[in-house]
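Tokens for chain A. Residues wanted.
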């Protein structure tokens, strides 16, 4: 005869409590497991600091000791790496000033977390030594190659404005650097507006950089998403700390980085040494000068019609929590280092 089991209120309450406890325990284990397997995706371009960071593996080892899986994703342009960052495909990115402003003006959402000192000499307008072009004024009516929506377009437009010309006074030829290099070499364009390492490579072949262009700010920045910065400020600090250390080592001795870049790009080591010596590679948290320069660039992009949406740079800057009590005014001209 089957014995009937009576489900008393106490028995039911105990059963429900036990079941909830088991579910919560399982959820906690799943969360811990997920956290231990979380991937940090580092986006990079082929430059001295990020390639050295990848090669040394010190950041990667430290993150792995913290339980993270590290993935590296390579990109060829500033616009493509920032698109990936905005889409959440990567957690960190490096790109130039103008591409970042273009991206923000189109609705992207990310944070500037650090930057390198401005290096105006790392960009310029190249002409053949036999072209007869001696100054920016001589560019009138000429075919000029440059990468659209980049620092090159900004540099050319502002340089022309400085001598009373506009983009309508020249014949723009929109080409990415590899294609522009061929066009310039073959004489299909009269001038090429570009940045390093292309600038130094082409100059080394006997071509000339116009020396009367204004000295506009030109920086590389490091970025993360707003969500990642909020959730993982410790990792953001760790990332910048390692990039800063790598940059400091490159400034002391660029030979190792030049060898690494030679292997990655086939550009001669001595050329890379010149590129690295032309700029400061040390990295620091965002300072007021960098913010002011970015804002001026953003405002100018609207004035000259390259962007339509005004960008407030200060809304997209991240600082470590222990620096938050410092006002922007107090930070003017200050660099926050890690060593």
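Reply:
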């Amino acid at each position: 005869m089957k014995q009937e089991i009576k489900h008393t209120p106490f028995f039911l309450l105990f059963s429900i409590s036990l079941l909830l406890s088991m579910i919560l325990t399982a959820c906690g284990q799943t969360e811990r497991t997920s956290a231990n397997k979380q991937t940090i995706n580092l986006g990079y371009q082929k430059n001295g600091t990020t390639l050295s960071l990848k090669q040394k593996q010190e950041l990667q080892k430290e993150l792995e000791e913290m339980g993270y899986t590290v993935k590296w994703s390579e990109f060829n342009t500033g616009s493509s790496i920032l698109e990936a960052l905005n889409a959440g495909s990567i957690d960190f990115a490096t790109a130039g000033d103008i591409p970042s402003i273009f991206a923000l003006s189109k609705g992207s959402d990310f944070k500037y977390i650090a930057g390198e000192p401005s290096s105006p000499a790392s960009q310029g307008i190249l002409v053949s030594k036999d072209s007869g072009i001696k100054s920016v004024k001589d560019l009138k009516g000429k075919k000029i190659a440059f990468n659209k929506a980049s620092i090159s377009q900004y540099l050319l437009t502002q340089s022309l404005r400085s001598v009373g010309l506009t983009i309508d006074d020249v014949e723009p030829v929109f080409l990415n650097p590899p294609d522009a290099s061929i066009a310039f070499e073959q004489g299909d364009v009269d001038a090429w507006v570009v940045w390093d390492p292309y600038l130094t490579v082409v100059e080394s072949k006997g071509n000339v950089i116009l020396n009367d262009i204004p000295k506009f700010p030109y920086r590389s920045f490091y970025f993360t998403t707003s969500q990642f910065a909020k959730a993982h400020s410790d990792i953001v600090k760790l990332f910048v700390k390692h990039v800063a250390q790598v940059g400091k080592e490159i400034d002391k001795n660029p030979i190792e980085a030049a060898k690494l870049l030679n292997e990655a790009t086939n550009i001669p080591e001595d050329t890379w040494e010149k590129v690295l010596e032309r700029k400061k590679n040390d990295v620091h948290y965002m300072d007021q000068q960098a913010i002011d320069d970015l804002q001026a660039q953003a405002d100018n992009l609207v004035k000259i019609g390259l962007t339509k949406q005004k960008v407030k740079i200060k809304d997209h800057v991240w600082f470590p929590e222990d620096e938050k009590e410092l006002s922007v005014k107090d930070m003017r001209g200050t660099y926050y280092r890690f060593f």
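The longest helix spans residues 9-36. Residues 1-37, 323-339 have pLDDT under 50 and may be disordered.
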